[in-house]
Design brief:
By secondary structure, the chain is mainly alpha-helical. The chain contains nine helices and two strands. It has one domain. It binds fe (ii) ion (2 copies). The site of one fe (ii) ion (FE2) has 5 residues, from helix 3.
């Protein structure tokens, strides 16, 4: 599997334009390109892909993983072979993979930090990211809000994006059972969680080593 896209913005646009065909896609893309830092933002402040462009790379990694997971789940055990996804499923895979972390726009601020060089033991300046959310609506909740201002989602897509943090979601940590109920309604909830974990813990971890 290709770990790092050569030109993540171009690859993102290619998948977005090829796979998504619904009303509002142009308005959403215009907003992402002109009013946000989506294509220059990192994927995290210090864990996976904490580098410019990291968010676009992560979104592509999740799209790629989700596509493989969907093919796996939809393959009939009695008819092994590579299954083709329907146009509607290709669209859902692209929407979920490429857009699930839109909530991360505008939250990672590049700042000069002080760190102790482990070799020289001297304190020095270095560039790093600080997380500061000017619109703290919640993680999956904010992605939903920002996407649907421009483009409609199906109910299954809305459930998957809302609950994509899985066990790390604040409501789940507080004892909510709604995620379990969402999983009962659509397999896209756990598929997106699995794809997100594979991207962050396999693709992006090995890419950093
Ligand atoms: Fe996320
Ligand atoms: Fe993610």
């Amino acid at each position: 599997m290709e770990q790092i896209a050569r030109d993540p913005r171009a690859d993102f646009l290619a998948v977005y334009n090829r796979s998504i065909g619904r009303n509002g896609k142009a308005a959403l893309l215009y907003w992402l390109e002109n009013d946000t830092d989506f294509f220059t933002a990192p994927a995290s402040s210090k864990n996976h892909l904490a580098q410019p462009g990291g968010l676009a790379v992560h979104s592509l990694n999740v799209w790629r993983r989700l596509r493989e997971i969907a093919v796996r789940d939809m393959t009939d055990r009695n008819e092994p072979g590579v299954r083709q996804l329907s146009e509607a499923d290709e669209e859902t895979v692209a929407v979920l993979g490429l857009l699930h972390d839109v909530c991360k726009v505008g939250v990672y601020h590049q700042e000069t930090k002080r760190r102790r060089n482990p070799e020289t033991k001297q304190w020095e300046d270095c560039l790093g990211y600080t997380f500061r959310d000017p619109f703290p609506l919640g993680h999956g909740e904010k992605s939903l809000f920002l996407i649907t201002r421009h483009m409609a989602l199906t109910e299954e897509e809305a459930l998957a994006i809302r609950w994509h943090m899985g066990a790390y979601d604040d409501a789940v940590k507080g004892g909510s059972r709604s995620m379990t109920e969402a999983m009962n309604l659509t397999p896209w909830v756990w598929r997106l969680q699995e794809a997100d974990m594979c991207a962050a813990w396999i693709d992006e971890r090995s890419a950093a080593e």
